[in-house]
């Protein structure tokens, strides 16, 4: 199963999709996703999420780490929403 069919579970391990590269752009002071046709500028929250989508960290671990970084709780729904959007654009994928 790939990002198009695999459900997102706490054990899912999101990773950057093929053809995309995440990098910090010092001039813009933000993370961007580079791809052959262009670039996607990410806001702070999206950049923080995407940095953790390394294919090794689970959704549960990503949420826990973000909650610690932002000093907040209850971020899972927002992280899931972003991951779903990113998957629709092909920025991310994960296996079941």
UniProtKB/TrEMBL annotation:
Keyword Transmembrane helix attributed: no
Where does this protein act, in terms of pathway? Cofactor biosynthesis; pyrroloquinoline quinone biosynthesis
Q: Which UniProt keywords apply?
A: PQQ biosynthesis
Q: Which residue ranges does UniProt annotate as crossing the membrane?
A: none
Could you tell me which Pfam families the record lists for this protein? PqqD
Keyword Ligase among UniProt keywords: no
> How would you summarize the oligomeric state and partners of this protein?
Monomer. Interacts with PqqE.
Write the protein's name: Pyrroloquinoline quinone biosynthesis peptide chaperone PqqD
* Species name: Verminephrobacter aporrectodeae subsp. tuberculatae
Query: Taxonomic lineage per UniProt?
Result: Bacteria, Pseudomonadati, Pseudomonadota, Betaproteobacteria, Burkholderiales
């Amino acid at each position: 199963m790939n990002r198009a069919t695999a459900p997102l579970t706490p054990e899912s391990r999101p990773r950057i999709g093929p053809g995309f590269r995440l990098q910090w752009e010092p001039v813009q002071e933000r993370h961007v996703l580079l791809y052959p046709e262009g670039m996607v500028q990410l806001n702070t929250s999206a950049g923080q999420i995407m940095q953790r989508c390394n294919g090794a960290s689970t959704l549960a671990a990503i949420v826990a780490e973000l909650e610690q970084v932002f000093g907040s709780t209850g971020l899972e729904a927002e992280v899931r929403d972003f991951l779903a959007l990113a998957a629709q654009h092909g920025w991310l994928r994960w296996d079941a």
